[in-house]
Amino acid sequence: MTMDASRRAFLKRASALSIAGTATPFVMNLAAIGEAAAATASDYKAMVCVFLFGGNDYANTLVPYDTAQYGVYSAQRANLAYAQSALAGTLLNPSIALPNNAQYALAPQLAKLLPIFNAGKMAVMLNIGTLVQPTTKAQYQANSVPLPPKLLSHNDQQSYWQASSPEGAASGWGGRIGDLLQAGNGNSALTCMNVAGNAVYLTGRQAVQYSVTSNGPIALNARNSLQGSAAAATLLKSLISSSGGSHDFELALGNVGSRALNLYDSLSGALAGAQVTSTVFPAAADPQSSLGAQLQMVAKLISVSSQLGMKRQVFFVSTGRYDTHDGLGALHPVLLANLADALRAFYDTTVELGVSSQVTTFTASDFGRALTANNDGSDHGWGSMHFALGGAVNGGRYYGTNPILANNGPNDIGQGRLIPTMAVDQYAATLASWFGVSASDLSTVVPNINNYSGSPLGINLGFV
C-alpha cells in the first residue's frame, strides 16, 4: 500500500471510530464530528427505534381474544394465558375488521397505549419478522428460498432486524437512511443518535452514531480536572485538539478532537435551555429498566433540534430481559408495563411540544417466541407483533395478515413459531419513505426490498 493510500485509509477510518463500542464513549464521540452543509429541508422529522432485546413474546403482548383463537391460545399455554375476562378492557376495535371475525386485545399492562390506538395514532403490525423474500411454509420445508441465516439466534436476528445482515454487519438501515439525509442537517454528527450505547442499526456507510446517555452527552474524562488539576486538564484538551503539526495523521486527529469538544459544548448548551414539559415519565416498575429515561432524553434532544440546525434525526433506545424462557408470567407483565409507561409519556411529550406529527416511534425485537409454553416460559420463535405510533401514523387498525394460531399449523414451523408474512424490509421501507428517502434510493437502505414488489402487502405498508 502506498503512503497516500495509507493516509486515505486512516482518514476514512477516523470517521468510523464510533463502532468501537460502548466501552469507549469518548472515542465514539470523537468520530461523530462531520459538519454538513446548512440545512435545506423545510420541516423536521425524527424516527425512534425502541428495541426490545431478548425476543418479545408475541402471544402475551397482542393476545388472541375471539372465541376460536382464544381457545387455541389458552390450550397451548395454560399456565401463561391471560384470562379472557382480564382482556375486555384492552380489546382493540380497529377501523378495518380482520377476516373471520378475528379479534385481539392488548396485554392489560399495555392499557396506557389503548387511547393512542383509539385516536388513530398507533398501528399494529401483524406477524412481522426477518425475511429475505416472501416465504411460505412449503418453501421453508423444501428449503427452496433463501432464509435469514441462523434463525432463532439472538445475535444474528438482532443484527438482521437492524441491518438486513447477520452478526458482523458493517451498517444498519437506520444509519443508511442517515447517509442519504445527513447533508440537510446543520450538524451531521447528530443525525444518528444512540441513547443506549451502540447499535449496528445506526451505523451508516458514512454516517456515524453519536452516543449520549440518559443524562446528556458524554464528556471527556477529566474535562475540567485531571488528577485535581485544572491546568493539566486544559493541557490535555489542548493536546487532543491541537492541529499545529504538519503530518496528515496529526492534522486529522487534531481536527477530530477539536470538533468533538466543540460538539459536546454545543449540545450541552442547547440541552441546558431545553423546554420544560409537564408530562411526567413514571419511574420504572423494574429498576433495571431505563427506557423511560432514554426516551425522555430523546424528547429533550428533539425539543432543541431547531437550535442545533437539525432536519432529520434517527434515534435508538433499548431495553432488555425479554428472553423469557422461564418466569414469563411474573417478568413479562413488568416489562410491558415499563414499555407502556415509557411510550405513552414520550408520545404525550411530543404532543405537548407540538411535534407529534413529526415523530414516529416503532418497536422492534430479535424475534417472536413460540406459542406453545415451555412450562413457565416460551422458547425462541420467528414472527411477532409490533407497534408504530405518532401523529403521522395511520393508526387505529392492523397491518398485515393475522396468522392462524396452532401448534404446527399452516403459518408456523412448529410450536406456534410464526413464519412472517410481513418483512422487516417492508417495515423499514415504509418508515424510510415517510422520512424522505426516494423510491430510487430504497434499495440502498433495504437491499432486498425489490423482492417484495409483487407481494400482497407491497413495498410500502402505508401505516405512515
Number of H- or I-type helical stretches: 13
Helices and strands, in order, run as HHEEHEHEHHHEEEHHHEHEEEEEEHH
Provide mean pLDDT, rounded.
88
Q: How does CATH name the architecture?
A: 3-Layer(aba) Sandwich
Low-confidence segments, given as residue ranges, are 1-39
Shape, please? globular
Q: Give the total of domains.
A: 1
Sheet with the most strands?
Answer: 10 strands, mixed
Q: Beta-strand percentage?
A: 5-15%
Number of strands: 14
Structural class: alpha/beta
Q: What is the third-level CATH name, the topology?
A: Alkaline Phosphatase, subunit A
CATH domain class name: Alpha Beta
Give the terminus-to-terminus CA distance: 48 Å
Spatial extent as radius of gyration: 23 Å
Task: Give the helix proportion (percent range).
Answer: 25-40%
Protein name: DUF1501 domain-containing protein
InterPro entries: DUF1501, TAT_signal
Organism: Novosphingobium aquae
Describe, in plain words, how this protein is organized in 3D:
The chain has helices at 3-14, 25-31, 67-76, 114-118, 137-142, 154-163, 173-181, 230-241, 248-272, 291-303, 328-353, 424-435, 442-445; strands spanning 45-52, 62-64, 104-106, 122-129, 192-194, 209-213, 216-217, 312-319, 359-365, 369-374, 377-380, 384-389, 397-400, 422-423. The chain is built from 13 helices and 14 strands. Helices cover 33% and strands 15% of the residues. Helix 1 (3-14) packs parallel to helix 9 (248-272), helix 8 packs across helix 9 (248-272) and helix 10 (291-303) packs parallel to helix 11. It has one domain (3-15, 24-452): 3-Layer(aba) Sandwich (Alkaline Phosphatase, subunit A).
